[in-house]
Structure formats: structure tokens, C-alpha cells
């Protein structure tokens, strides 16, 4: 949104996707969790909108919520979009609840599997378990118990949870993640972000404990 205010409209293709020049700019300038420029360009020499899921989702949201529109071969902000671009708090309230609760997050994931559960349960459990940090694997076990004995099934189940629950919360700025430094570098820990502490009020808030002083 800031780009359109500084540079004007954004060119779109015949299929209504952002043109590559803007996509490349977005990849290099968006500070998106686990979707950095090095990671994207490692797999794609030429990046289209469909190759950069955060931008594709954001484009959809802006059109769906009528904050942007397509006019001929350009994407432009609507009057309301321009107004909200000047008010980050109002923009957050408009975008984030819709993104988290209404988007089918499996639509931009590797598989179309949906995790069992609902946002009320996920948010309240994560509120407590990720308060001081927890590994993704341990968090999954807190919610679902031990993974399936079938490795392929277990892998798909845990991936669905990460893709449809943890990743949207991280993209929304409500979770942060760190990756252990090791031979395989696979152990990821998630933490509640300062933003989540300031904007969310959940049923399990009274279960939170302060970090004991050493």
C-alpha cells in the first residue's frame, strides 16, 4: 500500500497478477518471516506472483476487502484503502481478523490437508504454551498427542498444523519463530510477539505466569 502511494499504480498481467517488476521489488523489500529474498531466489530465477505466497495472499485480501481494485491493466488503492494506509491500527483490525479466520490457508500450502480443531482452541492453547517459547513439535503434541506411527501421515498432519495455524499467525505478526542452529537446522521454536500481547484478549490469559527471576 505504501508502494502505491509513493510510486503510483502497480502493473498487472492479463491474469490479474502483479507484474514481475513489482513482484521482484516485493521479494527484496518485504520483511516476511521465512520468506526472505535469498530463500525465494534460491528456487526461482524469475519470480511471478504465484511464486511468492505472501504477496499473492495480500493481493487477494486487498481486492476482497475493497481496499484495492483493478482498473484496466493496473492495481490501484481505493479511497478507503488510501485512508486505512494512513492508519496502521485500523488497517490491522480490517486485515488481520479476516486473514486469520476467513482465508483457506491450505490453498497456498503444499498440501490441501486441514488440521483438526478450531481457532478458539488453537489460540487459547498457543496463548499459554508459546508465552515463553515452545518448539513446534512440542506444541503439536500438546494439542494432538503423539504423532501417527505412519511417518508419512504424521508428516502431513504436522505440516497441516504449521501451514494452516502457525504460519498465518506468524505472517499476521502474532507469533515469532527461531530456528536452532544444528546439522539439520529443523527445530523451530515459536514465541508470542509483543504485538499479540498488546492486541489479544483470550480466555486463558489468567493462566499466564510471569518469568521467574534467576
Give a brief rundown of this model:
The chain has helices at residues 2-7, 20-29, 37-43, 53-64, 79-85, 88-102, 119-129, 136-144, 151-171, 194-199, and strands at residues 10-11, 68-71, 74-77, 134-135, 175-179, 188-192. With 214 residues, the chain is mainly alpha-helical.
Write the layout of secondary structure elements.
Blueprint: H1 2-7, E1 10-11, H2 20-29, H3 37-43, H4 53-64, E2 68-71, E3 74-77, H5 79-85, H6 88-102, H7 119-129, E4 134-135, H8 136-144, H9 151-171, E5 175-179, E6 188-192, H10 194-199
Antiparallel strand pairs: 1-3, 2-3, 4-6, 5-6
What does this structure look like?
The protein is mainly alpha-helical. The chain has two domains: 102 residues, no CATH class; 97 residues, Arc Repressor Mutant, subunit A (Orthogonal Bundle), CATH 1.10.10. The protein contains ten helices and six strands.
Give the total of beta strands. Answer: 6
Order of helices and strands: HEHHHEEHHHEHHEEH
Q: From the alpha-carbon coordinates, what is the Rg to the nearest angstrom?
A: 19 Å
Question: Strands across the major sheet, in which order?
Answer: 1-3-2
Features:
single chain; 214 residues; mainly alpha; Arc Repressor Mutant, subunit A; 2 domains; three-stranded antiparallel beta sheet; 10 helices; 10% strand; globular
Amino acid at each position: 500500500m505504501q508502494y502505491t502511494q509513493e510510486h503510483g499504480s502497480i502493473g498487472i498481467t492479463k491474469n490479474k497478477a502483479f507484474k514481475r517488476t513489482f513482484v521482484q521489488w516485493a521479494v527484496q523489500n518485504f520483511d516476511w518471516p521465512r520468506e526472505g529474498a535469498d530463500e525465494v531466489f534460491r528456487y526461482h530465477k524469475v519470480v511471478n506472483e504465484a511464486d511468492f505466497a505472501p504477496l499473492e495472499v495480500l493481493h487477494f485480501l486487498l481486492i476482497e476487502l475493497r481496499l484495492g481494485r483493478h482498473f484496466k491493466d493496473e492495481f490501484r488503492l481505493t479511497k478507503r484503502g488510501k485512508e486505512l494506509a494512513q492508519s496502521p491500527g485500523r488497517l490491522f483490525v480490517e486485515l488481520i481478523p479476516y486473514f486469520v479466520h476467513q482465508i483457506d490457508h491450505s490453498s497456498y500450502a503444499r498440501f490441501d490437508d486441514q488440521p483438526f480443531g478450531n481457532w478458539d482452541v488453537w489460540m487459547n492453547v498457543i496463548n499459554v504454551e508459546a508465552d515463553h517459547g515452545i518448539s513446534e513439535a512440542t506444541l503439536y503434541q500438546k494439542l494432538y498427542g503423539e504423532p501417527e506411527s505412519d511417518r508419512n501421515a504424521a508428516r502431513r498432519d504436522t505440516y497441516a498444523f504449521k501451514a494452516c495455524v502457525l504460519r498465518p499467525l506468524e505472517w499476521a505478526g502474532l507469533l515469532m519463530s527461531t530456528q536452532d542452529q544444528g546439522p539439520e537446522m529443523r527445530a523451530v521454536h515459536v514465541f508470542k510477539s509483543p504485538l499479540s500481547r498488546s492486541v489479544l484478549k483470550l480466555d486463558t490469559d489468567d493462566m499466564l505466569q510471569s518469568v521467574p527471576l534467576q
